Amino acid sequence: MEASKSKKQTILEAAAELFRDRGYVATSMRDLADAVQLKASSLYNHISGKEEILQTICFQNANRFLAGMKEIEKRPINNTDKVKALIHLHIQIATEDFTSITAFNDEWRHLSDPELSRFKELRRDYELRFKSIIQAGIDAGEFVSVDTTIALFTIISAVRWIYDWFKPNRAISMDQLEEQIERILLGGLGVKGV
Amino acid sequence: MEASKSKKQTILEAAAELFRDRGYVATSMRDLADAVQLKASSLYNHISGKEEILQTICFQNANRFLAGMKEIEKRPINNTDKVKALIHLHIQIATEDFTSITAFNDEWRHLSDPELSRFKELRRDYELRFKSIIQAGIDAGEFVSVDTTIALFTIISAVRWIYDWFKPNRAISMDQLEEQIERILLGGLGVKGV
DNA sequence: CCTACCGATCGGTAGG
DNA sequence: CCTACCGATCGGTAGG
């Protein structure tokens, strides 16, 4: 059970790739079966249905972001460095696991309740925690006084689509990518000498 | 033909709304027919098929962005003001027409060739024009020296998802929204006193 | 893990 | 603009 990648894991990874390329709805169980060299009916020996796959991808990533957030919250650093760490977290997840992150970003709305509501709650929790850090940074005089909602979504959106256009093989290294995005976003918050 | 909104226009608007809420693939012609009080077969008296609707939405918006870009390019203003005008353009389109803009942003990949290739070309053209303005701003000493690709996509992404979270009825007015986003993004490019 | 198959639904057409 | 209907494909199950 630990020997090699389990068949279930293989299925989940192939599904994430198909969901990214064609979307959840446009990916059929037969497409997925072909990708893992199985007949469609055999998939059901490993998973309970199509939506279980989507649920797994969505909640795995949601939990990853939240775990990263909670770890960063506990660090004894100022708010500027926390925002930097969060930008780093987003970029790291987006570049490390860019297949499943696309499905996570774009396909969660095809979840059914109660999972859909639970997913939205997790996302909202994450956003509120992020917003608190921005607010704390403003209160501490680290950032200029901006609307925290606008700042939050500007930052999240700016890093959200990295997987869409960042090709790791380009003239830009991952470190440069991160340094420049930090400079633009933190510079925008009025932090000097980012 | 000019008396009231044509039936075709009604269908296109209902489709944009359904595509936004459920996605292109998950919206059936029967869903759409119900929304405009018709039988599915009657839709084909107004449109040639499902994909024509998607094409119309995608290219209408692509042309709107490009027309705005070309108008801004011609203005006798500096690059800082051009970037401001482009941010204004994105925010304006996103808030004015936020239904079809969602379909435009998220569903274009379901186009088939040759329309898919044509759409990507239009988008690339827009991006290159935007990038040229950023580069010109750097050359003129208006912006700090950043990677133009990173700056371009950071800006585009940051304004791309406004329709996702901006509720016009909130405590933030559209002018405030725009002013604050400009401040964050242009501040990030090193422009003083935005 | 497969063959065989289910009812439901898809985009679209024929014909009036 | 409708009724009636087409072949294709969907997610999933029965049974071995």
Summarize this entry quickly.
With 194 residues, chain A is mainly alpha-helical. Chain A has helices at residues 7-22, 29-35, 50-74, 79-96, 98-107, 115-139, 148-160, 162-165, 174-188. Chain A binds chain B through residues 23, 25-26, 106, 109-110, 144, 146-147, 149-151, 153-154, 157-162, 164-165, 170, 172, 176-177, 180-181, 183-190, and chain B through 23, 25-26, 106, 109-110, 144, 146-147, 149-151, 153-154, 157-162, 164-165, 170, 172, 176-177, 180-181, 183-190.
Task: Tell me what you see in this structure.
Two copies of one chain form a homodimer. Chain A is mostly helical and about 190 residues long. Chain A has a single domain, classed as Tetracycline Repressor, domain 2 (Orthogonal Bundle), CATH 1.10.357.10. Chain A is built from nine helices and no strands. In chain A, helix 3 packs antiparallel against helix 4 and helix 3 packs across helix 5. Chain A is elongated and about 60 Å long. The model of chain A has no long low-confidence stretch (mean pLDDT about 90). At the A-B interface, helix 7, helix 8 and helix 9 of A face helix 7, helix 8 and helix 9 of B. Chain B binds a DNA duplex (16 and 16 nucleotides) through loops.
For this structure, the CATH topology of chain A is Tetracycline Repressor, domain 2
**Count of the domains of chain A:** 1
Main sheet characteristics of chain A: none
User: Strand percentage of chain A, roughly?
Assistant: under 5%
The most extensive interface between chains reads: A-B, 36 and 36 residues
Q: What's the count of strands of chain A?
A: 0
CATH architectural group of chain A: Orthogonal Bundle
Q: Cα-atom Rg of chain A, whole angstroms?
A: 19 Å
Any idea of the CATH class of chain A? Mainly Alpha
